[in-house]
Write a structure and sequence with these properties.
The chain is of the alpha/beta class. The chain is 30% helix and 23% strand. Helix 5 crosses helix 6 and helix 8 packs across helix 11. The protein is globular, with a radius of gyration of 22 Å.
Length: 340
């Protein structure tokens, strides 16, 4: 017998109430769900409340919502799991992390490769104790000098998570959607063609699979992952289709991009590094101190004018998005003009 397909998601946590929805694909009948708090079942609930957001779906009924009262500790993170009581299938965004409230929200640095991110990471790291950072240098060294993968983030034990004040890495923005607690998001952007060229040189120098290949060959091999990367990384609840943008895409959703930028406490652009650091420092209420420059592109590799022209052409869509990002950057950091 085929297992019944369950769909639904964990929604927002507001005023001590956790909301979401759940239904079976083969029936409009209300489903019983169970909630686990820190791996312990705390109760069973019925998904029979109306949810206006379900009007967009081809359901016969919108009465598949649920509300769970949760009065949580204001100082600790709690793991929440919601699953169908009968089939034990988990809902989307499972498991998630919730904090009742937070005096100092967790900082999550979305590190887009080759956007001065290593410099900002080191500056942020210096603001916290090693045990307050994931991944810290010990985590990175134990992973052959690389950021741990997504599975390691979601498997962080609660006793360590409750001590964290900073998470950073080459992780997409959607990671923040798994945690229903206040998070200060920051990131850095760069002119697309410059970023691609820098990334290309990085692959030439560090990726063993690129040994013996010309920059042209490497670009041909990795073009789909290099072009429009800065847009794909921004997949989140406001821009759920961002990851589908590839090197052949001809459009992006400017409205969703701006809504995504709204979620960041601050974001920088490489060409305005000082101003960016000032805004991020102010938004996070941190003294980022002396500038640190690290992981700069290798000067020994020369990119031909033909390859530069091809990259510029391929980055046409991302350039349009970057102009939007740059405009938002100047508008939102305008108050810094007297400070920088």
């Amino acid at each position: 017998m085929n297992k019944e397909l369950i769909e639904g998601e964990i929604g927002r946590y507001v005023n001590h109430k956790l909301r979401g929805w759940c239904r079976a694909s083969s029936s409009e009948e209300p489903r019983k769900i169970e909630c686990l708090l820190d791996d312990k079942i705390i109760g069973e609930y019925l998904s029979n409340e109306p949810r206006k957001k379900l009007q967009k779906k081809a359901f016969n009924s919108i009465n598949h919502g649920f509300t769970i009262d949760l009065h949580l500790s204001t100082k600790l993170n709690h793991k929440i799991e919601i699953r169908d009581s009968n089939t034990k299938q988990p809902l989307s965004n499972n498991p998630t992390l919730i904090r009742g409230s937070s005096e100092q929200p967790l900082v999550f640095f979305v590190h887009i490769p080759k956007t001065a991110g290593t410099s900002l990471r080191l500056m942020l790291d210096a603001c916290f104790l090693e045990r307050e950072v994931f991944p810290n240098m010990k985590d990175i060294r134990s992973n052959s000098g690389l950021y741990p993968d997504l599975n390691e983030i979601f498997s962080i034990k609660l006793d360590r998570l409750n001590k964290l004040k900073l998470i950073n890495g080459h992780y997409p923005m959607l990671v923040a959607d798994h945690w229903l607690m206040e998070i200060n998001l920051v990131t850095f952007f760069r002119r697309p063609a410059e970023r691609v060229i820098s990334h290309l040189k990085h692959l030439k120098k560090n990726d063993k699979s690129c040994n013996g290949l010309s920059l042209e060959d490497i670009y041909s091999k990795h073009k789909n992952s290099l072009v429009n990367l800065q847009l794909r990384v921004l997949k989140n609840r406001e821009y759920k289709t961002a990851h589908l943008i590839n090197s052949k895409s001809s459009n992006f959703n400017e409205t969703k991009l701006i809504k995504t930028l709204d979620r960041f406490s601050a974001f920088g652009i490489v060409e305005e590094f000082d101003r960016s650091i000032a805004w991020i420092s102010d938004a996070l209420n941190l003294d980022l101190g002396k500038k640190i420059f690290s992981n700069q592109a290798s000067p020994e590799f020369t990119v031909s004018e033909e390859l530069k022209s091809q990259i510029e052409l391929d980055c046409k869509l991302e350039n349009r998005a970057y102009e939007c990002i740059k405009s938002e950057f100047y508008n939102r950091s305008a108050y810094l003009r007297t400070k920088v």
